[in-house]
Design goal:
This protein is an alpha+beta fold. The protein folds into two domains: 102 residues, Orthogonal Bundle (Peroxidase, domain 1); 72 residues, no CATH class. The protein has eight helices and four strands, in the order ααααααβαβββα.
């Protein structure tokens, strides 16, 4: 089911991206989809907007009132289709897929850095700068914390994993010891 939802989200996002490129509104779509995705992270809002006891027109009007008519008409149309098909849970996936398409077009590399402890602003900025030098382009950096790393940091950019964590180093040392690679 998750795969079908992702495929559906990808189709919606691709169609939205084509419209946005045609109209020259790609950045506006990006901001508005992110905003809608944030609003729909509240399950109460989603339940209310998908309530089958309310006519579609009332639910769509309620959705429009959430954003005070400052959305592009095309964005309202997309969300109307999604609401009519009772697929509001896929809006977050649509926004994520749209961002992926936008980043690809703009040459932005997505990276996820996972550290044992939270990085401060200076450390995050230094990491972003280092990754931008490595990739030769802009980097959209997301930060995560995983105490099981023990120390250090892991960075994932697409299929590339850069493992500078203490746990990763210990795993590599264990592998070398068990294979006899460190024998005198």
């Amino acid at each position: 089911m998750a795969r079908a939802r992702t495929t559906t989200a990808r189709r919606y996002a691709e169609a939205a991206f084509e419209i946005a490129e045609r109209d020259g509104t790609t950045e506006l779509w990006l901001a508005q989809l992110d905003r809608i995705s944030g609003a729909l992270s509240d399950e109460t809002v989603v339940r209310r907007l998908e309530d089958p006891h309310l006519p579609f027109e009332k639910r769509h009007a309620a959705f429009r009132s959430l954003f005070k008519d400052d959305m592009l008409p095309q964005v309202y149309n997309l969300l109307g289709i999604v609401m009519r098909r009772r697929r509001l849970e896929s809006v977050t996936d649509i926004a994520r897929e749209y961002r992926r398409l936008y980043n690809r077009k703009e040459g932005i590399v997505e990276a996820v850095a996972t550290s044992a402890a939270e990085l401060d602003d200076d450390e995050a900025k230094a990491l972003r700068t280092r990754l931008e030098k490595m990739t030769g382009g802009r980097v959209d950096l997301s930060l995560k914390v995983d105490p099981s790393l023990l120390g250090g940091i892991q960075v994932r950019m697409g299929d590339l994993l850069i493992d500078g964590s203490a746990r990763g180093r210990l795993e590599r040392l264990r592998t070398q010891l068990t294979s006899g690679a460190l024998a005198p």
